[in-house]
Amino acid sequence: MQLNKFFNENNHRIIAPTSATRIDSRYNAHNIIDFAKFKNIPFPATAAVFHELSSNHLPYLLDINLNINPQTIPNLFFTNWDNYNFNLQQTNLKLININNEEDADTAIENFT
User: Fold this and answer.
1) Which of 51, 69, 76, 49 is nearest to 60 (CA)?
2) 4, 16, 29 from 25: Cα distances, Å
3) How far apart are CA 78 and CA 41, in angstroms?
4) 3-state secondary structure at position 57
5) Record's superkingdom (predicted)?
C-alpha cells in the first residue's frame, strides 16, 4: 500500500494485468507481480497476460496506444528565447582570455 500511496501522491500511473502473472499451484496462490509505472506519459495503456508457457511466471504484454491525440502533460514548460536574450544582454559579462594553464587556474580561482 505504501508504494501505491507514493505513486498516487506523485502523479504516477500503474498499469498491471487483471490476471495473475505468477502461478503457484502447490499452494494454489496466484499473484500479480508484474506492473508498469508511468509518469508524464499521456497515452492509454493495457497489460495482458499470456498463458503460453509452462513456467510459473507468465509473460505479459504492455500495450501503449500511441494512435490517439495525446493529452497535455502537466508541468511542461518552454524557453522564452526572446526573454532569455534580453536578460543576457542586460547582464554585464566579463570576457576573459585564457591562453595557458596559468590563465585557466586563475579563472577557476576567480570563479569559485
Assistant:
1) 49
2) 27, 21, 7
3) 18
4) strand
5) Eukaryota
Instruction: Spell out where 1-112 has E strands.
Output: 13-15, 22-24, 29-31, 36-38, 45-49, 60-64
Distances (CA, A) of 49 to 61, 69, 74, 98, 107: 6, 27, 31, 62, 60
First-to-last C-alpha distance (Å) of the chain: 46
pTM, entire model: 0.47
Query: What's the rounded Cα separation, in Å, for the pair 103 and 112?
Result: 14
10-residue mean pLDDT profile of the chain (112 residues): values are 81 86 82 86 86 83 78 74 89 84 89 74
Query: What is the dihedral angle through the alpha carbons of 2, 11, 47, 58, rounded to the nearest 10 degrees?
Result: -30
